[in-house]
Model the fold of this input.
Amino acid sequence: MAKQVLSIEQMKNLSKLMPLKEKTDFIWWGKGKGIDPDRYKWELYCSDTADANPQCDWIYPAYALQDILDILPAEINVKGERNWLCIDMAEEWVCYYHEYDGRQYPCEVFDFRDGEHLIDAVYIALCWCINEGYLKVGKEERP
Done:
């Protein structure tokens, strides 16, 4: 079965890069009162059940593929050239930005690969866009 949501480690990393949206279809629940949050036992639940567990000590949203695609810019400007977001599967999942110069093939490619899961390739692209300034997350977007 395909990976449905980002792992708790990926969500923790993403929370360091950008504010996380509060409403998602899935959430990670951390359990283990009095324990360091890095040592919690994390379980994935549907967000509709969020109020059903009073033993929960910590909650992280769990982004699904659509959540990430909604955040990723459809195009970025690199050195004055427009580059469009593309997703492809050949031998592995690839999420990439490229621009055309009238030829059939892309001129410049920024690609992010994960052999098994599309959501991981898209996550890598999202982190790259944030780190390179192509996505506004409380700081100036790259021109």
